[in-house]
Design goal:
Layout lengths: L23 H14 L7 H14 L17 H18 L4 E3 L7 H18 L2 H15 L2 E8 L2 E11 L1 H8 L4 E10 L5 E3 L17 E3 L1 E12 L2 E7 L4 E3 L13 E9 H6 L4 H5 L12 H7 L19 E11 L8 E10 L2 E9 L5 E4 L13 H27 L2 E4 L6 H5 L15 E4 L5 H19 L18 H41 L4 E5 L2 E5 L10 E3 L7 H22 L8 H14 L25 H34 L1 H46 L1
Antiparallel strand pairs: 1-19, 2-8, 2-14, 3-7, 4-7, 5-6, 9-10, 10-11, 11-12, 12-13, 15-16, 17-18
């Protein structure tokens, strides 16, 4: 039993805070108070609504049935729930529906590895199909679906049978300290050789004749009991009647949740396997508790064999059931004035509770979702609640129509008691004789047929149910008249409007259920796994280093077309056609599309068809080795050699020409210098002549301008 030690005082600036609890008894008192005030601990409005929804889904009698009257039940809740389940289930089991997003540049591979790890935990470590199916149906029927996850270290016991083991193999088995041999049979190997008998020092034993003592090779058959921890991450469905949560919590992600817990019965054997000591477990009280009297619990297990011996009074002592509360609560135990999240596990009755486990943690490993979210409430509404009233009304209408039909076919009779043989009258058979003493002594009491008047009401209530739940017959493909006298565009618009509510339910499942589950599973994986994690997924071996992953990565869940395979197929086929056109016209080395993108599109098309492993049909370009370099052509090599020789010849000729040019320049240097001086003198003379002519022209221009000015002055 874990005891809470006295908290150590830490000197801080400001007023000293008093911890909420400093002893185990005080912590238990807090848990008891929070549990009693939590939603789901005792019968309340939400519990009553869940019990009614479950009863209607199972088709149980309403309790107002009368003998001799119709007892038919409308199944609106069942029909609505089962219409949504395939769409939502396809969403959560689709490969790649939820993916981690990279945090920084270069984190794409890390994000992909994190997605693969969580997919493996969900689909391989756990029964993902069953877990998600229950998760979805709980939300649709009982207003809330709940999951929790944890690292399971409980001991698992298995019986293993091995036969035909050699002495060496037996010696290796003896090193397995977690296994106990239950049965052991040794016998000579009929096909084995004779071996010398060895002493304690490993030397052959010699007989009186000086010869080694021989014995046949022995084989062994054993049955052994193996005890080993599971050491895996477990995902567990929490039944709605087992879920308790702070009544004042407002967020489905539990940011402001003060208390949340899983209330369940466990056997003494299960508690011992979880690592609790036998002395503690044997001292816990067992039997029926307030939990077994919860209304929706009784509704689920009423008249079932499961509830015959909930207290475990019959059978083995190890199978006695004990109420266990696995809870998380915010409480200040260190005296800093801020409540931290603490994981506690208690056992026993409300007034006789024992603390089995206590640890401070950094997150709450729960995820819950509701099809219809309610502001400022964790638990919303399920489609069962939306269809419940319609089922009650439709049941009453259907019963009234059938009762009227029965009475119209077999009406009640008004008879003169003394004039009719009552035995003949009570015998209903075709052609039967009824003896009477007079005429008109038997008069049928007419009952009008009301079917024509009630059928429009039935149709109206069905339409009202569809408007409330968003589930329609044409949306399910069940209405044969929905396409009569209707254009394709009108039908498509009506179908899109009918599925808008369904897509909203899917988005609530994605954001409130799947996203917290994926992030929580990654956090749990990073906490308990530190070495290289190797697993097989989609026909390939994946190796992951937990130290390289980032727990802060966000999750994106794709919902848009998850339930419409035809739309998804058309979309990806269009993408495929564009990719093919680009690859054909621009080649595989274009900047837009490569073979990797083309392979991904093919994989999406196969996923829509239900094939999760595209590697069975197409090669993944990312896993293919690079193409080998082309072999050199001998002719090309010969040509290269010839070109190199010609280049060397040209280089030699170039050097000769450069040397000759240098010699000629030396010889011609003096002559060239004299000619240059002469040309420079001629150029200077020409420049002086040009300057003189320019001055003469300027003077002539000025004289002409002066003449024009004088003439203008005379005028």
């Amino acid at each position: 039993m874990v005891m809470i030690e006295e908290t150590v005082e830490i000197e801080e600036v400001g007023e000293e805070q008093t911890p909420d609890a400093s002893t185990e008894d005080e912590l238990i008192n807090i848990i008891q108070a929070e549990a009693q005030d939590a939603i789901g601990y005792d019968t309340d409005t939400i519990v009553e609504r869940r019990a009614l929804n479950l009863s209607q889904y199972l088709g149980q009698p309403q309790g107002d049935e009368r003998a001799g009257r119709s007892q038919v039940l409308d199944r609106s809740v069942l029909e609505t729930v089962e219409a949504l389940v395939p769409y939502l289930h396809r969403l959560v089991i689709s490969d790649g529906v939820a993916q981690f997003e990279p945090v920084g540049d270069g984190d794409e591979e890390v994000a992909e590895q994190a997605t693969d790890v969580v997919d493996h935990i969900l689909s391989k470590m756990n029964d993902g199909h069953r877990i998600m199916s229950t998760f979805i149906k709980d939300g649709l029927i009982s207003d809330v679906g709940v999951l929790k996850w944890y690292y399971d270290t409980s001991i698992e016991v298995k019986i293993e049978t091995l036969s035909g083991l050699t002495d060496e193999e037996m010696a290796r088995l003896d090193m397995d300290v977690e296994a106990d041999v239950v049965e052991h049979t040794a016998y000579p190997d009929p096909n084995g050789a004779m071996l010398p008998v060895l002493d304690e020092l490993g030397q052959p034993v010699i007989d009186a004749m000086g010869m080694p003592v021989m014995q046949p090779m022995m084989l062994h058959d054993i049955r052994r009991r193996i005890r080993k921890p599971k050491d895996k991450i477990c995902i567990e469905n929490v039944a709605p009647e087992q879920f308790v949560i702070d009544r004042n919590a407002t967020s489905p992600t539990f940011e402001d949740c003060r208390f949340i817990g899983h209330r369940v019965f466990k056997t003494r054997s299960e508690l011992r396997a979880m690592g609790f000591s036998a002395d503690v477990v044997d001292s816990l009280p067992y039997g029926d508790t307030e939990y077994s009297l919860n209304q929706d619990y009784l509704e689920r297990y009423e008249d079932s064999e499961y509830d015959n011996d909930m207290g475990g009074e019959a059978g083995a002592d190890s199978n006695r059931r004990i109420e266990v509360l696995d809870c998380y609560l915010r409480v200040d135990l260190d005296g800093d004035g801020i409540g931290e999240i603490h994981h506690c596990m208690t056992a026993g009755f409300q007034n006789a509770m024992e603390l089995l486990y206590h640890e401070e943690v950094d997150h709450i490993p729960f995820a819950c979702w509701s099809p219809v979210l309610l502001p400022y409430r964790v638990i919303g509404l399920g489609v069962g609640s939306l269809a419940s009233e319609s089922q009650q009304v439709l049941t009453a209408l259907q019963r009234s129509v059938l009762d009227a039909t029965y009475q119209g076919v077999s009406p009640r009779l008004a008879v003169v008691d003394s004039e009719v043989n009552m035995d003949d009258l009570s015998t209903q058979e075709p052609g039967g004789i009824v003896r009477t003493k007079g005429q008109n002594v038997i008069t049928p009491i007419g009952t009008p047929l009301v079917g024509s008047q009630v059928l429009p009401v039935l149709e109206y209530m069905s339409t009202l149910r569809a408007a409330r739940t968003g589930v329609t017959l044409d949306g399910m493909g069940l209405d044969p008249t929905s396409l009569q006298n209707e254009t394709a565009t009108a039908a498509a618009l009506r179908f899109d409007a009918a599925t808008a509510r369904t897509e909203m339910v899917a988005r609530n499942l994605a954001e409130c259920g799947i996203k917290p589950l994926f992030k929580g599973l990654l956090q749990t994986f990073l906490r308990y796994f530190d070495g290289e994690f190797v697993f097989r997924l989609r026909d390939k071996v994946v190796r992951v280093d937990p130290n390289a992953l980032n727990a802060d990565m966000d999750v994106t869940v794709s919902v848009g077309l998850a339930g419409h395979r035809d739309k998804q197929t058309a979309l990806y086929q269009g993408i495929l056609a564009i990719q093919e056109k680009i690859l054909t016209t621009a080649g595989p080395n274009n900047p837009l599309v490569g073979f990797d993108q083309y392979y991904n599109t093919l994989g999406e098309l196969l996923r829509i068809a239900g094939i999760t492993s595209p590697a069975r049909y197409f090669k993944d370009p990312a896993t293919q080795p690079p193409p080998p370099p082309p072999q050199p052509d001998p002719n090309i090599e010969l040509i290269k050699a010839q070109v190199q020789i010609e280049q060397e010849k040209l280089e030699l000729e170039r050097e000769k020409l450069a040397f000759q040019a240098e010699v000629d320049s030396v010889k011609m240097g003096a002559e060239l210098q004299a000619e240059a001086d002469r040309k420079a003198a001629e150029l200077a003379l020409r420049e002086r002549e040009v300057a003189l002519k320019e001055r003469e022209a300027e003077m002539k221009y000025q004289i002409e301008q002066e003449k024009l000015r004088i003439q203008a002055a005379k005028i």
